[in-house]
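Task 17 of the worksheet. Students: predict the tertiary structure of the chain below and write it out as structure tokens. Keep your answer in the requested format; marks are given for formatting as well as content.
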Amino acid sequence: MNEYLLSLYIFIALFMIVFVVDYFLINKRKLNLIKNKGVTKKGKRKKIKNISEVDYLSAKFKLDTKKLDMDKMIIIISIINAFIISIVSSVIMLMPFAIMWQMIIAFALLFGLIYALYEIYGRHLKHKEERK
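Model answer:
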């Protein structure tokens, strides 16, 4: 039971760390650049970087990015990313296999979770767009 409790603590800590880093250091900066048309707070011009998850969802589900609430979408994307990374690392730590098998299982679990969670979120966005 102690091993599972440790894994749960690591899951929660890793989830919080990954969410904060993904949201504040990666996605929020990109979103601010997109909103300000490439101008930083100090007035410097930077190249506008697209958020790859938003591009993927809008291309796959044919979503209109102008109708989407980007701030809320960035928060949910950061939660999804943090959940995927945390769950994969926690599950792999509990497996008593050799490192090679852990890596194979981790990649399979990682790609499966990415596909499943972004598919669910994309369908949710599409359904929400069609209701409006």
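Marker's comment: The longest helix spans residues 2-35. The chain is about 75% helix and 0% strand.
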